[in-house]
């Protein structure tokens, strides 16, 4: 809105005062929002933290990031989250969690945290490069992203929900008594192959090099499992399918260049995860992969008032229910931290009701 002062016979200073009275000048400090509790991420960890924080009167604001609802929005069927005896689709479950968080007046917002500064007394966060927020407590629930091979056919059947998965514990059950393939050579790949071997008729493990990266004990476990076949020096050429579901995988030996097709109904990728924690580098203690290191048994990080929950700190379990559990821990830890800092803030008993 343009206001003309032509009709006002006032000097420069009164003009400024008038603008201030009309609230038409935004003073820099007014653009900085101050929050008791900021939650970064909208997966099961973030929404659970929000439910607890909101019920404890912490007035949480939650930024959803570029994947509202988190990783579960990419899966059809969730059968192992307690409370859904008939299972539920991932997107539906996440909408229910959002609704529950909003029922207690969590302020759920679009936006992406692009920068943080945890060096001073005040924890600073920037949304979409521009908006600055100062927070008493921050709960990081930014999750982790599974790594994929990146070939077109893998991505196609992943998006269709037609037989490509990065989570054997989540999806192995759907391939009972069937034949599956799994790519990977580390401890997680061995563990997932072993898990699948108990459900599936046959597991073919595709290992790029001529040896495992996994520890000897894990490698031996898969080598000694009768229904696991290991193909070393083997890479994936293409995931095969009928346009809807996976029917096989074409692989090649990277030494002999020989190709072969293996009939499978499930194609599992276990080549690691990347925690979404780049923006916290230099402020929080991270392990060599980038997972945030929490004080054992708590959600506390090395910075007071900054807490972590879910897959961003968990390279072991990586399940919705464990993410939700640590989301609850983070909100309770944040609540206690606030109570210790601010005598007027009472620890609510609502969290325990
Ligand atoms: C295909 C698939 C199927 C699965 N199936 C199951 C299953 O059946 N059962 C099960 O228990 N688990 C399953 N999992 C695992 C489960 O999805 C995860 O363990 C769980 O979602 C982790 O929750 P989280 O809240 O820690 O993070 P995520 O769900 O990863 O959510 C992270 C959130 O953080 C946000 N974010 C990230 N960076 C920023 C940023 N800078 N600013 C703002 N927001 C940010 C993202 O937008 C997202 O909303 C599956 C995973 C996949 C990939």
Question: Any overview of this molecule?
Answer:
The chain has 353 residues and is an alpha/beta fold. It has 2 domains: 30-145 and 273-352, FAD/NAD(P)-binding domain; 148-269, FAD/NAD(P)-binding domain (3-Layer(bba) Sandwich). The chain has 8 helices and 17 strands. The protein has helices at residues 12-21, 44-55, 90-103, 152-160, 168-171, 187-197, 216-223, 320-341; strands at residues 33-40, 61-63, 107-109, 113-117, 123-127, 131-140, 144-146, 164-165, 179-183, 202-206, 228-231, 234-241, 246-253, 259-263, 266-269, 273-275, 306-308. The strands form 4 sheets. Strands 1, 2, 3, 4, 5, 6 and 17 form a 7-stranded mixed β-sheet that branches. The radius of gyration is 25 Å and the shape is elongated. The two termini are 50 Å apart. Bound molecules: flavin-adenine dinucleotide.
CATH topology name of the largest domain: FAD/NAD(P)-binding domain
Low-pLDDT stretches = 1-13, 16-29, 349-353
Write down how many β-strands occur, each being a DSSP E stretch of 2 or more residues: 17
Quickly give the structural class. alpha/beta
Radius of gyration: 25 Å
Which ligands accompany this protein? flavin-adenine dinucleotide
CATH superfamily of the largest domain: FAD/NAD(P)-binding domain
What proportion of the residues form beta strands (DSSP E)? 15-25%
Architecture (CATH level 2) name of the largest domain: 3-Layer(bba) Sandwich
Helix and strand string, N-terminal first?
HEHEHEEEEEHEHEHEHEEEEEEEH
Instruction: Kindly report the average pLDDT value.
Output: 90
The percent range for helix content is 25-40%
| Spatial separation of the terminal alpha carbons | 50 Å
What's the number of structural domains?
Answer: 2
Shape descriptor:
elongated
**Name of the CATH class of the largest domain:** Alpha Beta
Major sheet description: 7 strands, mixed
The number of helical runs is: 8
């Amino acid at each position: 809105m343009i206001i003309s002062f032509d009709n006002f016979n006032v000097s420069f200073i009164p003009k400024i005062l008038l603008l201030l009275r009309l609230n038409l000048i935004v003073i820099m400090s007014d653009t900085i929002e101050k929050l008791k509790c900021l939650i970064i991420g909208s997966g099961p960890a973030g929404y659970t933290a929000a439910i607890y924080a909101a019920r404890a009167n912490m007035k949480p604001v939650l930024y959803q990031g570029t994947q509202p609802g988190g990783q579960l929005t990419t899966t059809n069927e969730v059968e192992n989250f307690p409370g859904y005896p008939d299972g539920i689709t991932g997107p539906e479950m996440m909408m229910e969690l959002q609704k529950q968080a909003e029922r207690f007046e969590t302020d759920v917002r679009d936006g992406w945290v692009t920068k943080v500064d945890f060096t001073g007394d005040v924890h600073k966060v920037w949304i979409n490069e521009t908006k600055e927020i100062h927070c008493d407590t921050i709960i990081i629930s930014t999750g982790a992203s599974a790594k994929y091979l990146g070939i077109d056919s893998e991505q196609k059947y992943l998006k269709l929900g037609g037989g490509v998965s990065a989570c054997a514990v989540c999806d192995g059950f759907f391939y009972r008594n069937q034949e599956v393939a799994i790519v990977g050579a580390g401890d997680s790949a061995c563990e997932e192959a072993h898990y699948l071997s108990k459900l599936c008729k046959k597991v073919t493990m595709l290992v790029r090099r001529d040896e495992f990266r996994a520890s000897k004990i894990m490698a031996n476990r898969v080598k000694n499992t009768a229904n696991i076949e290991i193909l070393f020096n083997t890479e994936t050429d293409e995931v095969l399918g009928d346009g809807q579901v996976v029917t096989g995988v074409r692989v090649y030996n990277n030494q002999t260049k020989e190709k072969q097709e293996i009939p499978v109904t499930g194609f599992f990728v276990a080549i690691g995860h990347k925690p979404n924690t780049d923006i916290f580098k230099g402020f929080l203690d991270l392990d060599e992969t980038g997972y945030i290191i929490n004080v054992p048994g708590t959600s506390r990080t090395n910075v007071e008032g900054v807490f972590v929950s879910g897959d961003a700190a968990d390279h072991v379990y990586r399940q919705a229910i464990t993410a939700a559990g640590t989301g609850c821990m983070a909100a309770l830890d944040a609540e206690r931290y606030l109570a210790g800092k601010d005598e007027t803030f009472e620890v609510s008993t609502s969290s325990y009701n």
